[in-house]
Amino acid sequence: MTSVKPQGWLNNHNKDYYGGGLMFLLGAGAVYQGLNYKFGTLTHMGPGYFPIVVGTVLALLGLLIALGARANVPAEERKKQPPEWRGWFCIALSIFAFIVLGRYGGLVPATFAVVFIAALGDRQNSLKNAFLLAVAMDIVCLLVFSWGLQLQFPLFQWGRP
User: Fold this and answer.
1) Are 31 and 52 in contact (CB under 8 A)?
2) Which of 145, 100, 93 lies closest to 116, judged by CA?
3) Which one of 8, 111, 135, 157 is most buried, by most CB atoms within 10 A?
4) Domain positions in the chain
């Protein structure tokens, strides 16, 4: 005779429903707020362009995640996994490193640090993989933000701004 365990309101089976629903609501809220601003065109973007486009993408991804939850295996059939404290710690530390290095070191060291430290949160990444990913993202960051968008963020700066 098997016993049936009671299920809480946030079991593993319906986390995707709630996560997808939350993403959908955040995206729909961004679109709603973006409608209060001028949209513009792709070549002359208005202040509402970015929130509407990103909100739409977020809402669509939220719907896909919620719909994908139907294919998930029930919670009873999945093995309970311990929390990933290493990942949480590395992500929080990477954000702190970006803030400090962005202010006192510039865009290149801040980008390298945020990617390198966050990549170490994944147990499958090696130091070499994290380093290569951080270098690649630095190059992308230089091309997009410095060269493409001409963002007024110093690439390198040492000490106080």
Assistant:
1) yes
2) 93
3) 111
4) 15-77, 85-148
- Per DSSP, the residues of 24-86 read HHHHHHHHHHHTTS--B-SSSB-TTHHHHHHHHHHHHHHHHHHHHGGGSPPGGGSPP----HH
- The 10s digit of each residue's pLDDT in 84-95 is 788 888 889 999
**Residue partners of 12: CB distance under 8 A and separation at least 6:** 72, 75, 78
**What does the block give as tokens for 4?**
């049936």
Cα distances (Å, whole numbers) of residue 60 to 9, 25, 57, 69, 143: 25, 10, 5, 14, 28
Task: List the structure tokens of 99.
Answer: 């803030």
SS3 labels along 83-139: CCHHHHHHHHHHHHHHHHHHHHCCHHHHHHHHHHHHHCCCCCCCHHHHHHHHHHHHH
Q: 17-57: per-residue pLDDT in tens?
A: 788 888 899 999 999 998 998 888 878 888 888 888 889 99
d(CA 52, CA 29): 9
Whether the CB-CB separation of 57 and 32 falls below 8 Å is answered with: no
pTM metric for this prediction = 0.55
